[in-house]
Amino acid sequence: MSSATEKNDALLQVNNVRLDFHTYAGEVKALDGVTFLVKKGEALGLVGESGCGKSVTALTIVGLLPENASVTEGEILLAGENLLAMTHDQIRKVRANKIAMVFQDPTTFLNPVLTIGEQLEEVFLLNSERLANVAAERKIEVEAGKEEQDTSGAAPKLARSRQKKVAKALSIDVLSQVRLADPERTLKQYPHELSGGMRQRCMIAMALARNPVLFIADEITTALDVTIQAQILELLRELKRQLSGSTLLITHDLGVVAELCDRVAVMYAGNIIELADVKELFANPLHPYTQGLMRAIPMIDRRMERLETIPGSVPDLIYPPSGCRFHPRCPFAFEKCKLEKPELLHVGKGHTVACHLYGEGKA
Amino acid sequence: MTKTVLEIKGLKKWFPITGGILGRVRGYVKAVDGVDLEIKEGETYGLVGESGSGKTTVGRCILRLIEPTAGEIIYRGQEITKLKGEAFRRVRRKFGIVFQDPYASLDPRQTIKGALTEPMKYHKILESDEEAVEKAKDLIKRVGLNEDHLYRFPHEFSGGQRQRIAVARALTTDPDVVILDEPTSFLDVSVQAQILNLLSDLQKEFNLTYLFISHNLSVIEHMSNRVGVMYLGAIMEAADKEIIYRRPEHPYTHALISALPIPNPALTRERVILSGDVPSPVDIPSGCRFRTRCPYATDYCKEKEPPLVARQPGHLISCHYELKLSAPIPLAEASRKT
Amino acid sequence: MMALQRPSSWSPAIAELKFALHLLLQNKVVLVGTVISVGVLITAAIGPIIISPEVATSIYLPGRLDPPSSAHWLGTDDYGRDLLQIIILSTRLDISAALIIVGADLLIGVLLGAFSGFVGGKFDEVMMRITDIFFSIPGLVLALAVAAALGRGLNNLIVAIIIVGWPGYTRILRGLVLAEKERLYVDALRSLGIGRFRIILRHVIPNTIYPVLVQSTLDLGGIILTFAGLSFLGFGATALTPELGRLITTGQSYIFQAPWLVAFPGLAILIISLAFNLMGDGIRDVLDPRLRR
Predict the structure, then answer these.
(1) Residue A28, number of CB atoms within 10 A of its CB
(2) If you placed Cys at B97, which of A214, B45, B179, C232 could pair as Cys (CB 3.0 to 4.6 Å)?
């Protein structure tokens, strides 16, 4: 691969992914050649309005697409390995060890009849090697008599009872890492006994338990109240400082992006239309959609008499507009926009934009 | 001096919790627990609070979609909570409401024309069908749609368009006060801006008074003249918008505003992060209801509930102490123009 | 300023119907059931046009109990009437009776159910206890008892079966209305000061009636069976009335001499009720939200 050298700091590369949903009404062309990369250790924000494809992109990465979706083109490379070419088993292993995803609504992903402790310990028990190492490190023993019935292989493997003890210790660690006030008590609680904020912390804990290289957070603060959202954002900031992995933060809230991300990718109707460092993007948005979006949000740190609006609404992706999918709503659209899809173009300082206004072919 | 259009005094809504085979009342969800507010003619009063603060219940009590447990609601000098039947129906016409969910607030089997003309005909506001249809045509254009849309069904519209229709419908009875219950929280930002602008335009055009209920601090800031901050069923602080957002004196307001993510990575500010969760409205803390999360709480706060009093004219605060709080948004940045 | 909007202006009912038809055509068994049902309905409707009703009363004793032949495809009965013609005429009577019964049950059930669910309180409580009483007695037994109390006669039999049928629809609609009245549009209508009778009749019922309609098509087969069954037992039709149950009653006296007299009307009942059941199943599947994607 020729570009390998310049992309060697990339952890995840999403290359030209196209995806359709088959529905009764027709083919929904949900992703239209999505391309971006997540660098090692960075937090990348993926922003856009509902239906832009940001969540679908995440689900594609972790291989959790619904049955009626099919990827028609493209590749997703995690440390050089194509996730889209993997079997179900392989991608499951990736989800268990490398990529962890947390969703907007934790209630659907927590088993209501198991305690938080049982669910969390299960994650640790999947990795017996790690348990053995931790046990050795911390000198966790069990009562005499129950000790080591298994002498099977050379690989360090612990007896079940000891494994559980280690898993519990690790669970408590990870729950305090997500700043739950009383981890021991939380372990014994069922999901319904926890508040929304606490459940979300548990989900984050479960993600951290896998020690992922990539942490995907899909609208994880959207359903929360402002003061609880602030707590979770604070936690994410802290974790970002402590951990080495990368984060892909999916949100519709530009405020959250501004607070947490290093770089931002803006999506519209199944395309990445602009990508830049967070400060650069907010100071100097280039794509007409990004500009419109920024002027459409009421901001309490500045006075505006009237909001600027983007006319119309998000297109129906069964019948997406030709050329640039934003052209019917774009105040600067010209002939070429209707005919030709703009490619992502480097405009300097790590800033890329997909818009004909910035190409050589500019009118 | 502008007239008071709507005044609410000591409004309470307690939902009983029943249990056991005999269905005995075991306790109450105190959704609204003593709310006072006063809305002046032509203004937008923003009611802001987190989920469970009771802000939506206040709106519903005004329209008597739910019956208040106690308190008075005074519309232009007339107490309306005791009105019944036709008398109340006549007053209710003076109120409009726009709900949060545009996908659920329209009857899926009724055309837009039906939805708009039904209230006019029902209340005999207009004598003939033709007049009602004319008015529906006028309203649909004023909310930025066109006549053709009258003959369609709700499922053919996007969320933003449906919310425009809901706004038009709220205006069919020529209301005086419109309650906007989270009117944009189901919408994307680009569409939200359209609806907010529309609401501002209509307010001027029809000389409407708005009660704007939302959890979104930025939207409330943009739309309101005055703001009331609710917490666990009561108003914590109420004042002109500028005061609430720049110089709040209640620790809850202060924390709320400082915790709001602002889409400006260049902005550095001090965040106040409240610990813990909002207590259950079934079991409201004794004394000051905010004390369990308040960074400044003392033992005294446990004993006595602070009354909502005016420290300066028009600035109401429910706190025992006069705290010196920093500006939640740096003022230098605050004056920045776009 | 309006963005892409599909240029359709179908009512949701028509859009649903088109989609339903699309799903219906996918299941072959259901399709067969539907085709037969429609065929039966058409036969019932045009029966008196193609066959003179006088056939039923034209007795020709020399030609009685003739076996199936090219002249009389299904043979003749004990009055010498052509069995095929009589079955076609009978179908009309059975089907109309079933439709009247289901229609009346729907009307009663839907109105009572809707008010019960929407108004709630004491009215609801009383209604639910009444339906409980109905459910605690097996339907056929109850119909038998009511029919016996009312005395013989077609109309009385129809009334008896109507009385047994409505509680089912009442319960279904009540449940749906309980959910529907929590929907926001109901609050929106209330906020506009619209009265509750209007809300129930013009908004809530049209939005909840579909599952009940589906149930009624499912019930149609069973009701035909009940009607023919009670008729077979001697309620309802008189000797010469062309009615399927009655035909079997008459035929059983000749079961060894002329087995076709029992076999063909029996087969007709079987086919009709099976076809309506299949169609009902199909319609239910079609409206099942889990199949919609």
Answers:
(1) 21
(2) B179
Task: Provide the mean pLDDT of chain B.
Answer: 90
CB nearest B262 (choices: A50, A228, A255) = A255
Structural domain range at position C268? 29-53+75-292
Same domain, A59 and A94: yes
Contacts of A3 (CB under 8 A, 6+ apart): none
- Clarify whether residues A120 and A261 are in a common domain: no
Phi, psi of B7 (to 5 degrees): -130, 135
Residue C5 is predicted with a pLDDT of 39
Instruction: Give the mean pLDDT of C154-159.
Output: 91
Nearest-Cα residue of chain B relative to residue A277: B265
Identify the residue whose tokens are 């359903």.
A223
pLDDT at A325 > cutoff 90 = yes
For B25, the enclosing helix (H) or strand (E) is strand B24-40
Q: Which chains touch C (3 or more CB pairs under 8 A)?
A: A, B
**pLDDT at residue number A90:** 92
Contact yes or no for C131/C219 (Cβ under 8 A): no
User: Does the beta-carbon distance from A319 to C292 stay under 8 Å?
Assistant: no
Other Cβ atoms within 10 Å of B154 Cβ, number: 23
Does residue C9 belong to any structural domain of this protein? no
Based on the fold, state whether residues A64 and A174 are members of the same structural domain. no
Question: Strand A26-39 to strand A10-23: parallel, antiparallel, or no bridges (unpaired)?
Answer: antiparallel
Cβ of residue B273 closer than 8 Å to a chain A Cβ: yes
Together in a domain, A270 and A347: yes
Residue A208: inside a domain: no
Contact assignment for C3 to A68 by CB distance below 8 Å: no
Please state, in angstroms and rounded to a whole number, the distance separating the CA atoms of residues A28 and A72: 12
List beta partners, residue B39.
B6
Can you give the pTM of this predicted structure? Answer: 0.85
Q: C2, A24: Cβ pair inside 8 Å?
A: no
- Chain B hits for C195, CB-CB cut-off 8 Å, are 122
The single residue listed with the structure tokens 């010469």 is C240
Could you give the count of Cα atoms lying within 13 Å of A360 in the half-sphere of its Cβ? 0
Nearest Cα residue in chain B from A182: B276
Q: Considering just the CA atoms, what is the radius of gyration of chain C in Å?
A: 23
Q: What percent of chain B has pLDDT over 70?
A: 96
- Under a CB-based contact definition with an 8 Å cutoff, are residues C267 and C180 in contact? no
Q: Is A207 inside any structural domain?
A: no
DSSP state, residue B312:
E
Cβ of A24 within 8 Å of Cβ of C6? The answer is: no
Instruction: Tell me how many domains chain C contains.
Output: 1
**Residue range of the domain that includes A313:** 4-98+213-224+242-358
Neighbours of chain B (3+ CB pairs under 8 A): A, C
The residue type found at B190 is S
Asked whether residue A83 falls in the same domain as residue A15, the answer is yes
Task: Name the H helices within B81-158.
Answer: 85-92, 112-122, 129-142
pLDDT surpassing 60 at residue A17: yes
* Best mutation target, C5, C19, C185, to test chain B (most B CBs within 10 A): C185
Higher pLDDT, A226 or C7: A226
H, E, C per residue of B179-236: EEECCCCCCCHHHHHHHHHHHHHHHHHHCCEEEEEECCHHHHHHHCCEEEEEECCEEE
Residues on chain C touching B96 (C-beta within 8 angstroms): 191
Tell me whether residue A252 is in a domain.
yes
Alpha carbons C249 and C230: distance in angstroms, whole number: 11
